[in-house]
Amino acid sequence: QICVVETKPPAGYTDNFDASAPPAVCGTVPANSTLRLTLTNTANRVPIHIQAGGGPVPAAAVASDKPDGSSLLIIFGALLLASASGVIAARAARR
Question: Does the global pTM surpass 0.90?
Answer without folding.
Answer: no
